[in-house]
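Thread: quick sanity check before group meeting

JM: Hey all, I'm pulling together slides for Thursday and realized we never actually wrote out the predicted structure for the chain we discussed last week. Dropping the sequence here so it's in one place. If anyone has concerns about the input, flag it before I start.
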Amino acid sequence: MKINGENLARYRTTQLTVAFSPPQDGAGYEWPDGMLAPINEPATQKCGTCTVELVIRGDNRNEITRTASTLHGLCLPGPVELVLDGYKGVYKGYLVSFAPEKTITPKAYKVKAVFEGWLQDTPVKLAYTGQTQATLHRVGSRPAACVLTITPRADVAALTMTGWGVHDLVVKNLKSGHSVVIDGTTGLITQDGQNKAPEVTIWALPAMDCKQRTITWDDANCDVTVEYTPLWL
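JM (edit): ok, ran it. Output follows.
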């Protein structure tokens, strides 16, 4: 197991068990008194839970106590990235409790650490060349922000793209070979590292917030790349 890239083996610490729980209150509905059926509301994004049990070994309780304190410090302030033995991907979240517990031997403690967050997989990259339409199928169970890259192979006065929400996305003054990057994670819109936002009309940042999304654009001379990180639990 690793915490933020730090292998716990160097601390004489071993992962015992891991338990995941999905969000318990993410469904969006309300059932007012007197109504015959609930009212649907937009679902909210909530953290799930990851509970990890560890065993810390040492020559005596003083050494173990200091090791436990060191491990606690590795998890703060957060978010923390956990690589869990036997599990694919990375769990990213925040420490909510860290409880060391004595065992019958003075040379070992158990620790129960609880994190709130989500499991994320290897990033997905989808590339489309010479096309004007693509259907995206989301990997993962959670909405995920996208990085949208548009690279023209010829100068284009204006490109109109649909599918990222209700309104069209319009990018003006595209130059051949110069990529425009719309980052749904940071909210930045750049071209060659410079601010491109004044020449972009956008109402919603690109995101895989539904299981399937079809996007279209009106110039096959523009290559399109969509990148996102699948999120679970």
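AS: nice. The chain has two domains: 2-119, 124-232. The chain has a mean pLDDT of 94.
JM: adding both to the slides.
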